[in-house]
Amino acid sequence: MSISLNISDVSRIAGVPKDLLRMWERRYGFPKPARDDNGDRVYSDDELDKLIAIKRLVDQGKRPGKLMAMDLPRLQSMMTTPAVDLDVDLLLEMLRNDDTASLHGWFQKQLLNLGLRTFIYKVMAPATHALGDAWARGELDVYQEHLCTELVISLVRQSLAEYYRDSGSPRIMLTTMQGEAHGLGLLMVEALLRIAGAKVISFGTEMPMRDIIMAPVGHSVDIVGLSFSCHFNGDDALVMLSGLRERIPSHIPIWVGGNGFAEDIVMPEGVELFRGLYEVEQACMNWPRTVGEKESSGHDGR
Predict the structure, then answer these.
(1) Which CATH fold topology does 167-291 show?
(2) What is the pTM of this model?
Protein backbone atom coordinates (compact mmCIF):
# COMPACT_ATOMS: atom_id res chain seq x y z
CA MET A 1 0.00 0.00 0.00
CA SER A 2 1.37 3.38 -0.97
CA ILE A 3 1.42 6.23 1.52
CA SER A 4 1.31 9.97 0.84
CA LEU A 5 3.68 12.23 2.74
CA ASN A 6 4.01 15.99 2.84
CA ILE A 7 7.36 17.75 2.64
CA SER A 8 7.72 18.02 6.41
CA ASP A 9 7.13 14.28 6.82
CA VAL A 10 9.76 13.46 4.21
CA SER A 11 12.25 15.97 5.60
CA ARG A 12 11.91 14.58 9.12
CA ILE A 13 12.10 10.87 8.20
CA ALA A 14 14.79 11.08 5.50
CA GLY A 15 16.84 13.71 7.33
CA VAL A 16 16.93 16.08 4.32
CA PRO A 17 16.08 19.76 4.93
CA LYS A 18 12.99 21.02 3.11
CA ASP A 19 14.95 23.67 1.22
CA LEU A 20 17.36 20.99 -0.01
CA LEU A 21 14.47 18.79 -1.18
CA ARG A 22 13.13 21.69 -3.23
CA MET A 23 16.58 22.44 -4.64
CA TRP A 24 17.11 18.81 -5.69
CA GLU A 25 13.70 18.86 -7.38
CA ARG A 26 14.57 21.99 -9.38
CA ARG A 27 18.14 21.04 -10.24
CA TYR A 28 17.97 17.29 -10.75
CA GLY A 29 14.30 16.54 -11.42
CA PHE A 30 14.05 14.27 -8.37
CA PRO A 31 12.05 13.87 -6.31
CA LYS A 32 8.95 14.46 -8.45
CA PRO A 33 6.17 14.96 -5.91
CA ALA A 34 2.54 15.20 -6.90
CA ARG A 35 0.39 18.07 -5.67
CA ASP A 36 -2.65 17.84 -3.41
CA ASP A 37 -5.81 19.93 -3.68
CA ASN A 38 -4.06 22.81 -1.90
CA GLY A 39 -1.12 22.74 -4.29
CA ASP A 40 1.26 21.32 -1.67
CA ARG A 41 3.85 18.67 -2.49
CA VAL A 42 2.85 15.05 -1.84
CA TYR A 43 5.49 12.28 -1.86
CA SER A 44 5.10 8.50 -2.18
CA ASP A 45 6.73 5.93 0.06
CA ASP A 46 8.89 4.83 -2.90
CA GLU A 47 10.28 8.36 -3.21
CA LEU A 48 10.91 8.40 0.53
CA ASP A 49 12.84 5.12 0.40
CA LYS A 50 14.98 6.44 -2.45
CA LEU A 51 15.62 9.73 -0.62
CA ILE A 52 16.72 7.81 2.47
CA ALA A 53 19.23 5.89 0.34
CA ILE A 54 20.46 9.07 -1.38
CA LYS A 55 20.91 10.81 1.97
CA ARG A 56 23.03 7.92 3.27
CA LEU A 57 25.21 7.94 0.15
CA VAL A 58 25.63 11.73 0.28
CA ASP A 59 26.71 11.36 3.90
CA GLN A 60 29.33 8.88 2.66
CA GLY A 61 30.72 11.52 0.26
CA LYS A 62 28.84 10.71 -2.97
CA ARG A 63 27.68 13.56 -5.24
CA PRO A 64 23.85 13.86 -5.30
CA GLY A 65 23.62 14.76 -8.99
CA LYS A 66 24.74 11.31 -10.13
CA LEU A 67 22.50 9.51 -7.64
CA MET A 68 19.16 11.02 -8.61
CA ALA A 69 18.75 9.06 -11.88
CA MET A 70 19.58 5.69 -10.26
CA ASP A 71 16.92 3.27 -9.05
CA LEU A 72 16.75 2.08 -5.46
CA PRO A 73 18.46 -1.32 -5.96
CA ARG A 74 21.41 0.41 -7.64
CA LEU A 75 21.65 2.95 -4.82
CA GLN A 76 21.58 0.19 -2.21
CA SER A 77 24.33 -1.72 -4.03
CA MET A 78 26.59 1.33 -3.72
CA MET A 79 26.29 1.65 0.03
CA THR A 80 29.35 0.92 2.15
CA THR A 81 27.12 -1.18 4.40
CA PRO A 82 24.37 -2.35 2.03
CA ALA A 83 20.87 -3.19 3.18
CA VAL A 84 20.07 -6.88 3.14
CA ASP A 85 16.84 -8.83 3.41
CA LEU A 86 16.20 -10.82 6.55
CA ASP A 87 18.23 -14.04 6.62
CA VAL A 88 15.74 -16.28 8.42
CA ASP A 89 18.01 -19.35 8.41
CA LEU A 90 20.85 -17.42 10.04
CA LEU A 91 18.49 -15.93 12.63
CA LEU A 92 17.09 -19.33 13.60
CA GLU A 93 20.56 -20.90 13.69
CA MET A 94 21.83 -18.28 16.15
CA LEU A 95 18.78 -18.80 18.35
CA ARG A 96 19.08 -22.59 18.34
CA ASN A 97 22.75 -22.29 19.26
CA ASP A 98 21.92 -19.81 22.06
CA ASP A 99 24.47 -17.47 20.50
CA THR A 100 23.31 -14.30 22.24
CA ALA A 101 26.36 -12.20 21.37
CA SER A 102 26.14 -12.92 17.65
CA LEU A 103 22.38 -12.39 17.65
CA HIS A 104 22.69 -9.02 19.37
CA GLY A 105 25.49 -7.95 17.05
CA TRP A 106 23.57 -9.00 13.94
CA PHE A 107 20.43 -7.08 14.90
CA GLN A 108 22.49 -4.05 15.93
CA LYS A 109 24.31 -4.04 12.57
CA GLN A 110 21.02 -4.18 10.65
CA LEU A 111 19.60 -1.31 12.69
CA LEU A 112 22.67 0.87 12.15
CA ASN A 113 22.79 0.10 8.43
CA LEU A 114 19.11 0.55 7.68
CA GLY A 115 17.90 3.20 10.09
CA LEU A 116 14.97 2.65 12.43
CA ARG A 117 12.05 2.97 10.01
CA THR A 118 13.50 0.62 7.39
CA PHE A 119 14.69 -1.77 10.11
CA ILE A 120 11.11 -2.13 11.34
CA TYR A 121 9.77 -2.94 7.87
CA LYS A 122 12.66 -5.03 6.53
CA VAL A 123 13.88 -6.84 9.64
CA MET A 124 11.71 -6.48 12.73
CA ALA A 125 8.32 -7.22 11.16
CA PRO A 126 9.44 -10.23 9.08
CA ALA A 127 11.49 -11.53 12.02
CA THR A 128 8.40 -11.44 14.22
CA HIS A 129 6.47 -13.55 11.70
CA ALA A 130 9.40 -15.93 11.19
CA LEU A 131 9.79 -16.51 14.93
CA GLY A 132 6.08 -17.18 15.35
CA ASP A 133 6.06 -19.67 12.48
CA ALA A 134 9.19 -21.44 13.76
CA TRP A 135 7.73 -21.72 17.25
CA ALA A 136 4.46 -23.12 15.84
CA ARG A 137 6.47 -25.76 13.93
CA GLY A 138 8.29 -26.73 17.12
CA GLU A 139 11.65 -25.47 15.84
CA LEU A 140 12.18 -23.00 18.69
CA ASP A 141 11.67 -23.15 22.44
CA VAL A 142 9.66 -20.43 24.16
CA TYR A 143 12.74 -19.05 25.92
CA GLN A 144 14.55 -18.66 22.58
CA GLU A 145 11.68 -16.68 21.10
CA HIS A 146 11.55 -14.51 24.24
CA LEU A 147 15.31 -13.91 24.11
CA CYS A 148 15.13 -12.67 20.53
CA THR A 149 12.16 -10.46 21.33
CA GLU A 150 13.88 -8.83 24.31
CA LEU A 151 17.05 -8.17 22.30
CA VAL A 152 15.09 -6.40 19.58
CA ILE A 153 13.02 -4.43 22.08
CA SER A 154 16.15 -3.21 23.83
CA LEU A 155 17.78 -2.04 20.59
CA VAL A 156 14.66 -0.29 19.31
CA ARG A 157 14.09 1.45 22.64
CA GLN A 158 17.63 2.82 22.53
CA SER A 159 17.17 4.02 18.95
CA LEU A 160 13.83 5.61 19.82
CA ALA A 161 15.40 7.94 22.40
CA GLU A 162 15.90 10.73 19.85
CA TYR A 163 12.21 10.65 18.90
CA TYR A 164 10.78 11.23 22.38
CA ARG A 165 9.10 14.61 22.60
CA ASP A 166 6.90 16.60 24.95
CA SER A 167 4.57 17.63 22.15
CA GLY A 168 3.34 16.18 18.90
CA SER A 169 0.18 15.42 16.96
CA PRO A 170 -1.88 13.38 17.24
CA ARG A 171 -1.65 12.32 20.90
CA ILE A 172 -1.98 8.54 20.89
CA MET A 173 -2.11 6.11 23.80
CA LEU A 174 -0.97 2.56 23.05
CA THR A 175 -1.61 -0.59 25.05
CA THR A 176 -3.10 -4.09 24.96
CA MET A 177 -5.97 -5.57 26.90
CA GLN A 178 -5.57 -8.05 29.73
CA GLY A 179 -4.71 -11.43 28.29
CA GLU A 180 -2.65 -9.93 25.46
CA ALA A 181 0.98 -10.07 26.58
CA HIS A 182 2.59 -9.77 23.14
CA GLY A 183 4.08 -6.30 22.84
CA LEU A 184 6.40 -6.45 19.83
CA GLY A 185 3.74 -5.28 17.40
CA LEU A 186 2.87 -2.47 19.77
CA LEU A 187 6.51 -1.36 19.82
CA MET A 188 6.73 -1.32 16.01
CA VAL A 189 3.67 0.89 15.84
CA GLU A 190 5.01 3.15 18.59
CA ALA A 191 8.27 3.64 16.72
CA LEU A 192 6.60 4.50 13.41
CA LEU A 193 4.17 6.89 15.09
CA ARG A 194 6.97 8.70 16.92
CA ILE A 195 8.99 8.98 13.70
CA ALA A 196 5.88 10.40 12.02
CA GLY A 197 5.68 13.15 14.64
CA ALA A 198 2.99 11.83 16.98
CA LYS A 199 3.03 12.20 20.73
CA VAL A 200 2.85 8.60 21.94
CA ILE A 201 1.87 7.60 25.47
CA SER A 202 2.72 3.92 25.84
CA PHE A 203 1.20 1.96 28.72
CA GLY A 204 2.78 -1.36 27.82
CA THR A 205 0.78 -4.57 27.69
CA GLU A 206 -2.24 -5.95 29.59
CA MET A 207 -3.80 -2.72 30.80
CA PRO A 208 -6.96 -3.30 32.88
CA MET A 209 -10.22 -2.34 31.18
CA ARG A 210 -11.02 0.26 33.82
CA ASP A 211 -7.70 2.02 33.22
CA ILE A 212 -8.10 1.95 29.42
CA ILE A 213 -11.41 3.71 29.89
CA MET A 214 -10.03 6.35 32.28
CA ALA A 215 -6.68 7.10 30.61
CA PRO A 216 -7.89 8.80 27.39
CA VAL A 217 -9.58 11.59 29.33
CA GLY A 218 -6.90 11.83 31.99
CA HIS A 219 -4.15 12.19 29.38
CA SER A 220 -6.19 14.20 26.85
CA VAL A 221 -5.43 11.79 24.01
CA ASP A 222 -6.74 12.08 20.47
CA ILE A 223 -6.66 8.35 19.74
CA VAL A 224 -6.69 5.07 21.66
CA GLY A 225 -4.51 2.41 19.99
CA LEU A 226 -4.82 -1.31 20.84
CA SER A 227 -2.92 -4.33 19.54
CA PHE A 228 -4.20 -7.91 19.28
CA SER A 229 -1.93 -10.77 18.25
CA CYS A 230 -3.03 -14.02 16.66
CA HIS A 231 -2.96 -15.57 20.15
CA PHE A 232 -5.92 -13.44 21.27
CA ASN A 233 -9.43 -14.71 20.56
CA GLY A 234 -11.02 -12.43 17.97
CA ASP A 235 -14.58 -12.91 19.29
CA ASP A 236 -13.48 -11.97 22.82
CA ALA A 237 -11.72 -8.92 21.41
CA LEU A 238 -14.91 -7.77 19.67
CA VAL A 239 -16.90 -7.99 22.90
CA MET A 240 -14.24 -6.02 24.76
CA LEU A 241 -13.99 -3.41 22.02
CA SER A 242 -17.76 -2.93 22.01
CA GLY A 243 -17.66 -2.30 25.75
CA LEU A 244 -14.77 0.14 25.40
CA ARG A 245 -16.48 2.02 22.59
CA GLU A 246 -19.53 2.59 24.78
CA ARG A 247 -17.50 4.00 27.65
CA ILE A 248 -14.76 6.01 25.90
CA PRO A 249 -15.93 9.45 24.69
CA SER A 250 -17.25 9.14 21.12
CA HIS A 251 -14.97 11.89 19.77
CA ILE A 252 -11.89 9.73 20.58
CA PRO A 253 -11.42 7.10 17.84
CA ILE A 254 -10.16 3.63 18.71
CA TRP A 255 -7.48 2.26 16.38
CA VAL A 256 -6.96 -1.50 16.38
CA GLY A 257 -4.20 -3.55 14.74
CA GLY A 258 -2.60 -6.98 14.80
CA ASN A 259 -3.26 -10.46 13.46
CA GLY A 260 -6.05 -11.35 15.85
CA PHE A 261 -8.98 -10.79 13.48
CA ALA A 262 -10.49 -12.68 10.55
CA GLU A 263 -10.50 -11.05 7.12
CA ASP A 264 -14.29 -10.56 7.15
CA ILE A 265 -14.51 -9.14 10.66
CA VAL A 266 -16.83 -6.16 11.18
CA MET A 267 -15.66 -3.69 13.81
CA PRO A 268 -18.02 -1.73 16.07
CA GLU A 269 -18.79 1.77 14.87
CA GLY A 270 -16.04 4.14 15.96
CA VAL A 271 -13.39 1.39 15.94
CA GLU A 272 -11.03 1.33 12.97
CA LEU A 273 -9.05 -1.81 12.07
CA PHE A 274 -5.65 -1.46 10.41
CA ARG A 275 -4.28 -4.45 8.53
CA GLY A 276 -0.65 -3.34 8.34
CA LEU A 277 1.99 -0.92 9.53
CA TYR A 278 1.72 1.22 6.39
CA GLU A 279 -1.95 1.86 7.09
CA VAL A 280 -1.23 3.06 10.62
CA GLU A 281 1.61 5.26 9.41
CA GLN A 282 -0.58 6.83 6.72
CA ALA A 283 -3.43 7.47 9.14
CA CYS A 284 -1.04 9.27 11.46
CA MET A 285 0.38 11.35 8.61
CA ASN A 286 -3.13 12.34 7.52
CA TRP A 287 -4.36 13.22 11.01
CA PRO A 288 -5.70 16.82 11.10
CA ARG A 289 -3.09 19.20 12.51
CA THR A 290 -3.87 22.42 14.32
CA VAL A 291 -3.52 25.68 12.39
CA GLY A 292 -0.26 26.53 14.12
CA GLU A 293 1.26 23.16 13.34
CA LYS A 294 0.21 23.40 9.68
CA GLU A 295 1.87 26.76 9.32
CA SER A 296 5.12 25.51 10.82
CA SER A 297 5.34 21.95 9.51
CA GLY A 298 3.77 21.18 6.20
CA HIS A 299 2.01 23.85 4.20
CA ASP A 300 4.96 25.87 3.04
CA GLY A 301 5.96 23.33 0.44
CA ARG A 302 4.38 24.67 -2.74
Answers:
(1) Rossmann fold (3.40.50)
(2) 0.68
